[in-house]
Amino acid sequence: MDSKHREINTILGDIIEHIAPDRSYEQYYNQLKYIVENIVHNIQDFEALLVMDNFLPLIDLFQEESARVEVCKKILIGSNISVHVVNDPVVVNALMFLCSTLHDSVNALTPDDEYRQIGDILCHVIKVIDYGRDFEQQLTFYVEARGMFSNIDIVFVQLVQCVNALSVKTRQIVKGAHTRKTGDFVRACAAYCFITIPSIKSVKHRLRLYLLSGQVALFNQCLGQADACFKAGVSTISEIQSEKAQFPEAELVPYVKQFLSILLVVPDNPDCSVLNLTRSMLNVLQGYSWDNTASLISIYLSVIDMLSVMAQEWYPYHIDKVESNDSLYGSDKKFIAEINKICSVVISELMSKLQALGPCTKQSSFAVELFVKVAVRNELTNQLLVLALNLWNLAVKDGSLDKRYLIRTKDYLKHKSSSNNTRLQEIVEKME
């Protein structure tokens, strides 16, 4: 501590000595707040302030909760501006003391703006505490922070994101070739996320974090932890039913589609049935009360896309060092049969939903989209050929689709059928 900071510390000690004994400080809250505010505003080395012997005792003089909270806010907002990375234990403890004061002031009566402001302050402090390459110490800090800040949702969200980032950094350092120690560490990170997410009240945040944490676990070859996160994410979708305002269908549809794109490369759990996660997702979607039938139809069309790719001998993308189902099953006939079973169920559901829409532009648009998927992405049996033609007739029946679009669709299928695909040629010939 240099001479300037020693002088400030001495002055603070003198103030405490004069007003602490007979509790006369209660008369001087405004003056004390002014002193703290001026020091925070003018000091250049903020960490030096936090390690002063007399700084935290000065804060202790504010016995009235509202005054103490106001002072702690000013200090931490000041630290947000001037402090970028902290790892000194004394400074960390001082910051945690100030943060705890703010956190403990939050209750059911706290106004939303105040709740958000305190959450933002705590999140910033969590982000600036950085132990560098000492990842185990960093995770220990996040565990302690979770225990201290249980009242504020956004803080738990920040902690889960920080732990996922820590897990990704670990993987980058070892370039995916985990040792026993780093493997144990990333599994501990995945476990932290899985344990923490259920405590978050917002179903929207829980959904997004389960998907993110599952992806990070998969990225680190933690297959069991990834599977658990994805299962929890699927189960959480059903909880949205009572909280649709938090996660409207306009947001749910792209979320589910992103989930499906990840499920493509998630290997089956050997302890569960074939495509267990995909079946679970479809069961949840089927049981969900959709406000707009078009939302479910749009998702089902994406499911058809995913299942079509699943049946391929080699998937278009993979997670490094993770064997997907294309490697595990190798186009095994039983696996393909399971995919076909699920496809049949989904197409049946799709046809039912399309009929329920009734004649309209949306019905025609969805029908032509499904028609192309059936015609191009499948081995056309007699049954599928009939289905494809029925879909085409449904698409053109009410004449609502742009004729140029229909002509381009037909030209596209003509081009696809030129490679000795007699079944597709037959469809093209029968298209009106």
TrEMBL record:
<protein>
    <recommendedName>
        <fullName>VPS35 endosomal protein sorting factor-like</fullName>
    </recommendedName>
</protein>
<keyword id="KW-0653">Protein transport</keyword>
<dbReference type="InterPro" id="IPR029705">
    <property type="entry name" value="VPS35L"/>
</dbReference>
<keyword id="KW-0813">Transport</keyword>
<dbReference type="GO" id="GO:0032456">
    <property type="term" value="P:endocytic recycling"/>
</dbReference>
<dbReference type="GO" id="GO:0005768">
    <property type="term" value="C:endosome"/>
</dbReference>
<keyword id="KW-0967">Endosome</keyword>
<comment type="similarity">
    <text>Belongs to the VPS35L family.</text>
</comment>
<dbReference type="GO" id="GO:0015031">
    <property type="term" value="P:protein transport"/>
</dbReference>
